[in-house]
Amino acid sequence: MSETTFDYIIIGGGTAGALLCNRLSADRNVRVLLLEAGRKDDYHWIHIPVGYLHCIGNPRTDWLYQTEPDAGLNGRSLRYPRGKTLGGCSSINGMIYMRGQARDYNQWAQLTGDDAWTWDNVLPAFKRHESHWRLDEGQPHDASFAALHGSKGEWRVEKQRLRWDILDAFAQAAQQAGIPATPDFNTGSNEGVGYFEVNQKDGLRWNTAKAFLRPKCYGRPNFEMWTSAQAMRLITEKQADGSVRCTGVNVWTGDGMEHVTATEEVIVCAGAINSPQLLQLSGIGPADLLHAKGIPVVHDLPGVGANLQDHLQIRSVYKVSDATTLNTLAATRWGKLRIGWEYLLHRTGPMSMAPSQLGAFTRSRPELEHPNLQYHVQPLSLDAFGEPLHGFPAFTASVCNLNPTSRGTVHIRSPNFEDAPSIAPNYLSTAEDQRVAAESLRVTRRIVSQSALARYQPQEFKPGVQYQTDEELIRLAGDIATTIFHPVGTTKMGRNTDPMAVLDSHLRVRGIQALRVVDAGAMPTITSGNTNSPTLMLAEKAAQWIRADHKARHGLNAAVPARTQPVPQPDAEAASLTL
């Protein structure tokens, strides 16, 4: 902690924060401080793909949040993992590379009144940091693929290193049910069925710390990083003209409080749960809530902590016959040893698995214009995440509503920064979400009934064929559904006329100068798929705006180059963490 004054303070070294550190510190004339509440990503289970089983629910890497009891889930509370380490959720997530649908971003443009968010205008930001395996030297591809994907970025996208006969049969059954095969979920229309592509490199998880921090930031004299350093409160000051400016952060280092000052901006990248919590602790949020918790109101922003959206997955489990699944492979000590040796020797096999291997996007009813369901299909089954695998061969077809209409909240419980916030997703609280839940279970049954799976004699273990009516299926969804870990929207961007918009279209906090929020909380509506890659895109856009604003303030050339730095090459420090 050599200094306490910086140009930029970035709170959170996760998905968005890591990219922003890389982009902003590329300018040697600015000083950047990264504050990360967790520890470094030197825990070996972070880097082994199947290690998410050891990272979720582990205080070493997870905030260990729980939701409030939820009426839509028949009173159940859910575990709500959030990454607490360098790389954030990219260190513990499912590693699936998914952009969503073009309509998601066109809707953002409408909601914010800013065409910067249209699909055509976000696509270059996706490509800027992408390194797609199909564009590697020697890999065949056509010009249309290259127009949609990047090859020179830091964010590695690879194909999975295993396949399963039972998943191939599910894919064939999906096609028989009317879902086309697709080689690429990331063209702007993700309709279809196929194996997911993943953020891995040579069989190892590729998190944002390895992609954006370690190759370049660690060696820059203008970059400083504090780990195990939790932001307690944003510091704001009233200016002579009556405006309010964010000037710094109070930070708990474990040994005491430090005050750090930002001369340019404070950028909050703490995620859709921790960012609204920090704003509320700092007096920025719904005035009624702040008064009730004894926090002086700096700025009344009722949207802080509102608009929580998440993907709720409904897990259908099918017993099968004469099929190899992870349940059977990992049933014996010898089987587990074989899996371990395969990974040690070749970086392949079940230890290289993402949590879900096969994906599908389709409609819950034919008249819908766009796919509104996503499947994560796995060659395994268990009663609940963290529980042992079942003792019989089975596969799981998890389905989620891509565009939920239910909205929840994130609210502080007290003025104490160490107290976990109250997370209330309000799942299945609208008639539309309940309808889609019932429809999605029927779509699953239709796929599984196709002839391609007949040889495996699938039997519905969960939820059970005895449940048939809408009322029964909705009740059942409440009993078995769980989060797929995609919270967004709690500090949404929007138009000036939207009283619930926390941010403007450039992610600046309304009513507070020199303060932005850059993470999944900024999304006004959830994307139609996994949310990690869209969060990186948000950060890429924000980096361009922040650099342009800096140049404009200081009378410099405001043009922002297409790339801020050469593509980093692996160095000795990066190699030391590849297991």
UniProtKB/TrEMBL annotation:
Its cofactor is FAD. It comes from the Bacteria. Belongs to the GMC oxidoreductase family. Residues 559-579 are annotated as: Disordered. The keyword Nucleotide-binding does not apply. This is GMC family oxidoreductase. Residues 271-285 form the Glucose-methanol-choline oxidoreductase N-terminal domain. InterPro entries: FAD/NAD-bd_sf, GMC_OxRdtase, GMC_OxRdtase_N, GMC_OxRtase_C. Keywords: FAD, Flavoprotein. The keyword Flavoprotein applies. The lineage of its organism: Bacteria, Pseudomonadati, Pseudomonadota, Betaproteobacteria, Burkholderiales. It comes from Comamonas jiangduensis.
